[in-house]
Each structure stands twice: as C-alpha cells, then as structure tokens.
Amino acid sequence: RLNQFFFDQITTMQTTQILDYLLKQDYRAKLISFLIFERSDDKLRYFYKRYIEKLSTKRFIWIESSSEYVSPAEVILCSKEIYSFLKLHTIEGRHLFASDEITKTFLIENFKIKTLAASGVVNYLEEIAQKESENPAFFEKAYAFLLRNNINASGRKILLGSNNALYGRSDDVFYIREATAIKIPQAISSRLVSLHPEIHIKNEDLVKSSKLLGIRDYRSSDLVDKALTLFESAQVDNFSILEFLVPLKSLSPLTRDAIQ
After folding, report:
1. pTM, rounded to two decimals
2. Which of these, 103, 83, 115, 108, lies nearest to 32 by C-alpha position?
3. Which of 3, 47, 183, 187 has the most CB atoms within 10 Å of its CB?
4. In the structure, what pLDDT confidence band is assigned to residue 243 with cuts at 50, 70 and 90?
5. SS3 of 76, please?
6. DSSP codes of every residue in 22-67
7. Residue 167 DSSP SS3
C-alpha cells in the first residue's frame, strides 16, 4: 500500500511538473524520447501501469505538419513513405505519425495505437483525393506509392483529369505522354478525359498503372474511337468533337472525309 502511494506520487509528478517542464523546453519530436521506458522488474508493475494511465491523457507526441503536441489517442502510426505524402491529412480524425522503431514499439505496446499499413491507404484515398483536386503533385506521389507497393486502386475514383475532376477506371482516362501533342477542347474534356498533364508516370510503370490504377495508355486510335462515340450524345456539341478530331494525324482519310 505504501509503495503504491509513493508510485502514485512519483507518476503524478512525472506526468505533470516534469512533463510541463519538458514541454516548455521546446524539444518537439525529441520530447517523447524522455518519456520512453523499458519494463525491467515485476515489482514495478503497478508503477508502470499508473504511469501509462496518466500519460495516456497527455499531449506529448509532436506532429510536425500541424506544429502541435497531441495525445496517443489522436495519432495513427504509419511508415515514413506514407507520411511523406499524407502528412497534411488525418485518418479517421487522427494525425499520421512516423517514428523510429523504439518509439513505435513503445506506443503500440502501451497505448494500443493503430498502424496504417500500406495496403490500407487505398481505403482513404478517395476522400483525400477530393481535398487535393487542385494539387496534381499529390496525385503523382500517390500513384507512385501505389505502384511501388503493388496496391490495386483501380476500383477507386482517384484519377485526376486535365479539368481537375476525379474519375475512375470506367471513365476511360487516357495518359498522354506528350501532353502538348493533343489538345482536348474544354467542352468535351469531361467526356474525353486525359490524365492531368502535370502528372508523370514512368514508362516502365505504364503497364502496371493500367492494371492497378485503371489508367489507359494513350493510343491515338483509342482516342479517335472514343471521340466518335460522342456524336451519339445529344448533350455534346458536335463542333467541339470535330475541333478535336480534324487536327489528329492518326485520323484515317476515310474517317476524315466522312466527318468533313
């Protein structure tokens, strides 16, 4: 009983006065290293238990992206690779946090913090993509991550079109390697969709991007076929279709004569 009383007093001091002092020193990401411990003796089980209980409600984890300390309940662990492109976003209301293995082990074992695996990122990308639709650089990083980790996202609406709208595999989004070679009129850009011109995919990843992302590698014949189907829609201005088709070198003479 006496030991428990002393342990309560010590852990209270550690998680109040001492922690408050450390917070004022502006250690930021280094602060957590002063709080980590290794369990060494069963006799101290009560001490460890009380220390973790009291620490669990405190804000001591530094989040660089938002420049603030948060509590263990406010974070989800992830790899540095995931953090590099998702750090400005929250997952299920929690901040992403990447750390060294010692810190990671300490947080998981004592606070039961969840970890976001690479395969789980795809479950949140559609929601995040909507917030990033004006930022092509984000999508280039996201696609590179998915391709590197062989994650199938072809069923998700995460393809950023040249008009900054989001599309999925069923929308037939073309990746045009030479973005200046073909110009799609604004009036049909939502029907004849090319990937945003600021997004670049490595040549060696084109086959994989078709399978995992749902992007179609540009073939002029495919684009022509897709454009010709637009004549069937009463909602599409035929002049815009012609404006796109006529300059194409790949257009067959027969087709060119027919539309002219």
Report:
1. 0.82
2. 103
3. 47
4. confident
5. strand
6. HHHTT-GGGGGGGT------GGGHHHHHHHHHHHTTS--EEETTTT
7. strand
Taken in order 165, 170, 173, 175, the sign of the CA dihedral is positive
Query: pLDDT per residue over 155-189, tens digit each?
Result: 999 999 988 999 999 888 888 776 445 677 777 77
The larger pLDDT score, comparing residue 221 to residue 102, is at 102
Q: Rounded to the nearest 10 degrees, how much is the dihedral formed by the CA atoms of 52, 53, 59, 62? A: 30
CB of 28 within 8 A of CB of 62? yes
Which pLDDT score is estimated for 178?
62
What does the alpha-carbon distance between residue 169 and residue 172 come to, in Å, rounded to a whole number?
Answer: 6
User: What tokens appear for 151 in the block?
Assistant: 């994650």
Q: Any residues with CB less than 8 A from the CB of 146 and at least 6 apart, and which?
A: 121, 122, 153, 212, 213
Taking the C-alpha atoms of residue 82 and residue 95, their distance in angstroms, rounded to an integer, is 12
Residue with tokens 């606070």: 111
63 — pLDDT class (breaks 50, 70, 90): very high
Can you tell me which residue has the tokens 């947080």?
107
State which H helix or E strand residue 121 sits in.
none
The burial class, CB within 10 Å (0-12 / 13-18 / 19+), for 252 is exposed
Q: For 113-138, what is each residue's pLDDT tens digit?
A: 999 999 999 999 999 999 999 999 99
Q: Is 252 helix (H, G, I), strand (E, B) or coil?
A: coil
